[in-house]
Amino acid sequence: MSCGEPHETDCSEVLDHLYEFLDSEMPDVDRDKFQHHFEECSPCLEKYGLEQAVKKLVKRCCGHDDVPSDLRAKVMGRIDLIRSGQTVPEHDVTKAPAAPQES
Are 82 and 102 in contact (CB under 8 A)? Predict the structure, then answer.
């Protein structure tokens, strides 16, 4: 997605890191860049508003469950693999490995 206008921070970079912005998981310097981008780019601001609304809805409906730290680490690891373009394992990395079967 792009509005077709040149920006200091590219629309694709903003959208790739949108959840880090929403979750305040980025350095303040990057947050400032993204905030400036939203001020001048209405398509990205619209996408930000939509994702923010979805996040609030999910939190309201499902926000009472604690996520195990190991699950969060596995999911974040998989996201990092996808972002880096590396091959992602076909198996579900969120499940514990199967116990070996006895003969």
Answer: no
